[in-house]
Amino acid sequence: MFKVIRLAMKNLLRYKRRTLLTGLLIAVGVVAVIVFVGLSSSFKQAIVGQITDSVISHLQIHRKGYMASIDNLPLDRMIPANAFEKLSGILTRTDKVAAFSPRIKFGAMLSNYAQTTNVRLNGVEPSKEQAVVPLLKNRIKNAAHEDLLFRKGEVLLPEVLAKGMALKTGDTIVLVANNKDGSVNGMTFRVAGVVESLMGPGGRDGYLHIDDAAALLRMDILEISEVAVRTKDFDHLTDLSMHLQRVLESIVNKQNQPILEAHTWDQLSPFYNVVRMIDVMTVGIKVILIAVVLISVLNVMMMSVYERVREVGAMAAMGTRPGRIMALFVAEGFCLGLVSALTGAAIGIGLLEMLNLIGVDVAFGRANQVFTLAPSVEPVEVLSACLIVLGVSILASLQPAAKAARLEPVEALRHI
Amino acid sequence: MKKQNKEFQNVMDIVIFQNVSKVYRMGEVDVAALSHVSLQIPQGAFTALVGPSGSGKTTALNMIGCLDRPSEGEVIIAGQDIGPMDRRASAIFRGEHLGFVFQDFNLLPVLTVYENVEYPLLMIRDIPKGQRRPAVEKLLDAVGMADQAKKYPAQLSGGQKQRVAIARALVSSPALVLADEPTANLDGATAQKVVALMKHMRDTFGTTFVFSTHDPRIMDQAEVTFHLEDGRLIDKSTIGKEAGHV
Q: What are phi and psi for residue A16, nearest 5 degrees?
């Protein structure tokens, strides 16, 4: 095999300019794939990280039917106290769960004594919430406390609302809410900070203590809207979700029907569609790479066979078997693909390293949300790009190689 | 195949044509390249197929080289009927029993002189490196090209290229070397030298040489000469014997 490869390399170097140009074209394709995959995956990681670590967390558990009307923040589809108690036990015992935080989500009227508006609120335990969404603290402007999000009797207000109503940290507001029976209750709170907006569900919500939420909603027995769960290993989130789906079936209602269901972040955030679009674009750019390699290698190999008909005739006449002639031309395509792929991979990885040094800032959502990407590419992605090039190079060489192997020596030797 | 080789060693005539005809279809017309030719070439003979252009000598040479098949009759080379051979079998047969010298030399331009001579052993016979080197060096020495071993074909004269081609044809110790107009692209003096070299190689290695030519200056060098005209064998002459009609 080595002797065939060696001869193939010599033949490739016969037309240096053509080989160089074709190789460069393929290498540019590989560079494009690696840089795109590097940038897009780091963009995905940054944005997904921002969404899951600031608002949604990795996974949420709701009462069945809650998700269907989540926009209305229904208070009649809450997780009952006894079910939450069982759920807490399950989550505490589940090894892959890093933390979980119960939330009461509801809508309320907010008044600054001069104006009134609607606000969506999350009643949470600050320490537990911080454990499931560690970046939430980074979104708080003018925080009243350094060590915790807020205390009882305090509220974090969404930025848009605070601006509109000219509220700032330390101001007093009144929250008025309807409980699930329709009765109204109002309580005063002190503003402990303003939360920067983020796109997606919950991105423009306010926060208060879960006990205050229960009191405002006049809950005699604590009921929970959702439980946000953070996993220890994000890469195995699906495994955790499937495991929880199974064990949650043990929590049933009086009709012996399971009442809880788990949803991963991608089922909760519309940004998942952007992620999917990026994935589709990645596939698209790989398809373009395949087309580039296919056309380039096919063109080079067809030219190569056409220009060497007499030579192939002489080789065949001397007794070179058709299979070996075919192997020789396939090896040329393979070598062209291999060298180009390795060159492209090296340049691509080098470019990503350069981008890392320079720093790529990307604005996402609101203009003030700027992420500095850390583009990197998994070895498996580099390997897959190289394997695509090699596979397609061999594929593109097959037809010209078969044509060379089929040449009749007598006719080939007469070729001018 | 080795068994056939052994059988072949007992065969006096290395090439036997029995009433061979070859008809090519050109458009809607059948053209007879060879008509009912019967001939025998003795083992070790320095043989020429002569005749004007279109006489059928290249067609006959192609059949001896298992590059073409007869439309009619039998061609037996080294004791084996080439008619039933498929492409792969005939390629293997050529690689094991035959050597070729082409009019245009057909050296591989990307290989050095040494590598060109090595090619049949490396790419066709799969001979290990330890056995290849002495064989290649012996042949390069024999054709007087040992000092040019590292040069590429583009750096050689026509005569030198043909010397390399002869070394390449002989390196795998074939029973029969075929040369189609080996001196057509060479000047008179070089042509004489190349033919003399081929004859010397025959004497040294005992290989049968069959070459086609219409150059009267080298026809005289052949020990056995077959005259072809319009696809028919019209004359056979052997040195020391008077030419007679076949």
A: -60, -45
